[in-house]
Amino acid sequence: MFFYDYYYVILVIPALILSLIAQANVKRVYKSMSTVNNRKMMTGAQVAYSVLCFAGLGNTVRIERIGGTLTDHFDPKANVIRLSQSVYSGTSIASIGIACHEVGHAIQYATAYAPIKIRNTILPVANFGSSAGFLIAIVGYFMGAELIVNVGIILFACVVLFQFITLPVEFNASRRAISLITEKGLLYEDELPKARKVLTAAALTYVAALIVSLMSLLRLILRTRRD
User: Fold this and answer.
1) What is the pTM assigned to this prediction?
2) Would you list the domain boundaries of the chain?
3) Cα dist. 83→61, 98, 148, 155 in Å?
4) What are the per-10-residue average pLDDT scores of the chain (227 residues)?
5) Mapping DSSP to helix (H, G, I), strand (E, B) and coil, where does residue 65 land?
6) How is residue 73 annotated by DSSP?
7) Distance CA 33, CA 66 (A)
8) So which residues are the catalytic ones?
9) What single-letter DSSP state applies at residue 5?
10) Which helix (H) or strand (E) element contains residue 66?
11) How many Å is the Cα radius of gyration of the chain?
């Protein structure tokens, strides 16, 4: 049964193609906007620090430079915003948007933003479900053990739930970024749509990832249902 998986073809492959398109789009948009400098010529690191101070986090959250492209993230354990080289020292509109987005995440943790607390609570189960849920369900199917199948499905469903909760976290961080940029006057009014375009493209990759996980879960349910 699992050797010819038409559910994978009709459900998962189209979702994977959509995910690849979303990833290609964010790279295209980032590449385009990374060539457009903000007229105040502030770097991503300067903007991040300025906004952190504005939010009262200038003395608690550090900013570090890391390698890679689009590797920017906030590490809540170390309380560090890590910015890729092109964002850290870059003066592009893309750099400003991404830096402020990561500050948005830092503010979420500082203000105990509810969705991020929920996401962190289910993270360990989601990590385990991502690596073992599908396998457990398949083993249960071949054993004829419905209970084991259901355990595997529930574990994999936690991955979908995690990614579903990730959406408001990411969209909220982007909204905070645009709000902070506006309040601090970091970009001119005609530059804001360009920063918003970068953040929207990045957010759509999370939407695509959710669709992939959702289709994978549906495939798993359909493939393990016995007649």
Assistant:
1) 0.89
2) 6-223
3) 13, 9, 43, 33
4) 72 96 95 94 96 94 95 96 96 96 96 95 95 93 92 96 97 94 93 95 96 95 77
5) strand
6) E
7) 20
8) 102
9) -
10) strand 62-66
11) 20
